[in-house]
Amino acid sequence: MIRKSWWSIGLWCWMTAISAASIQSLDEIRKAVATELASRIRQDHQNYDISVAPLDPRLRLPYCDQPLHVALPHRRLQAGWLSVQVRCGGSHPWVIYVKAKVRIYRQVAVLTQDLAKGTLLQPGHLALRQRDLGDLRRGYFTALDEVVGRRLRRSLPQGYALNPQALTDNKIVHRGEAVVIRARIGALDVRMGGHALMDGSQGQRIRVRNDRSKRVVEGIVRKPGEVWVTF
User: Fold this and answer.
1) pTM for this predicted structure
2) What does each C-alpha distance from 16 to 13, 19, 20, 113, 166 come to in angstroms?
3) Which of 14, 54, 123, 209 yields a CA-CA distance of 20 to 30 A from 194?
């Protein structure tokens, strides 16, 4: 009787081992997803993090006797949650969708202090800081010169990652604004106070009025608050 019981236990263990060997490892599925995502992301980004959601442990898929095929939803991956297809094309084919979250980190332009609506952004207001792009759905800037000279549409706090909706257009001189009128005459660098009579972007020719002489002249916008004229 005891011998028969040991034989039954041995048979059960052997059948369990055979059954386990015929079931696809869920960890291998998750590993395949993470590997494919990393391979794609590192083509465009250096700093990233991948989290593959756990699969239901009750899931029983036949063991795949061929390499798993992972199909990503987009050619150019974006940060956030993804639904990734994993397919087995072996003798017992199956398809499953796995959830994964991608975090992509990049240096973006942020405010170094609280600023009021209408503030003309200067280099001292800005810094590049690492942020998760998944949190920046409205966009972002990766270079400070993309935002210097633009104005805030609303008051914003320190640390805010700037996006196009937070800024006015790229006019760096505005009508009615006090400007410095500069001119080079020989070896002399002449500076005069004035006011802009129209909006202007960098490199644009605009009209300005000399505050002292009241004369209206045309000049080139070089940077915020500065217009160069030629006499």
Assistant:
1) 0.58
2) 5, 5, 6, 64, 62
3) 123
